[in-house]
Amino acid sequence: MKKIISVFAGLFFISPILACPAYADLAQINLTMTGTIVDSTCDIDTNSKNQTVHIGSFATTDFKSVGSVSVDAPFTIVLKKCSSMIKNAGILFTGTTGSDPTLLSLTDTSGGGNIASGVAVQVLDKDKKPVAINSSSPLSYALKSGDNTLNFSLRYKSTLATVTPGNATAVLYFSVEYP
Prior knowledge:
Keywords: Signal. This is Fimbrial protein. This protein is an all-beta fold. It contains 1 helix and 10 strands. The chain has one helix at about 45-50, and strands at about 5-10, 35, 45, 75-80, 90-95, 105, 120-125, 140, 145-160, 175. It has a 5-stranded antiparallel beta sheet. Strands 8-5-10 form a 3-stranded antiparallel beta sheet, with no helix packed on it. The protein is elongated, with a radius of gyration of 25 Å.
């Protein structure tokens, strides 16, 4: 998400029918403009915006108990042309979750049904620690001037003692904030 510089202004139009009579005093109308000027931020690399991450294909028996996990699949978010004035970026991940806010629920992205059950998707940071989905506190990353690559990974995690086979896709969104 890029900070947007905006200016708001009001425009007043007085219809001739509602105009003040010629003998009335004309009032002074004040027009107040507000806005913010911010430092340049970073561009999100086009390859980072719409990614498909293939976590892998796993047998239901690979998930032996609740909390079993698959191997993880890496993905990156690349921020390009970061201004030297920007020192940090906050990354927020959003999506549909269940009772565990660190797990992304599976969704029928193809519309074909047959969704797996008993498993969800877990997002991990660069240190392989779980990341909360829909958190109000972004993950903070130090940035250097120029290009920056932020590393993450995804894996399946069982949520039930029995995992059933099927489509195991999910949709994850991210946003970038500059404090």
